Write a sequence for this structure.
């Protein structure tokens, strides 16, 4: 299936209306799936959210 993109350009600081941050220093290569997870969040916000999700999962799995 050649319609799948595995590697894409990602914004380190998300694009926002009325801000001009579509610059080379704000771009990096990343996985397409990670880009979908990131959405409108910055990389640090995304990592914090993933940590929260994992901690919640760990907490739930310890209760089983």
């Amino acid at each position: 299936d050649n319609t799948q993109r595995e590697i894409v350009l990602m914004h380190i600081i998300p694009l926002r209306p009325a801000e001009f941050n579509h610059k080379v220093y704000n771009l990096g290569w990343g996985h397409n799936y990670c880009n979908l997870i990131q959405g409108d969040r910055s990389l640090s916000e995304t990592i914090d959210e993933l940590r929260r999700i994992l901690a919640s999962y760990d907490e739930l799995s310890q209760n089983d």
About this structure: The first strand starts at residue 7 and ends at 11. Strands lie at 7-11, 27-31. Helices lie at 32-38, 43-62. Residues 11 and 43 are 8 Å apart (CA to CA).
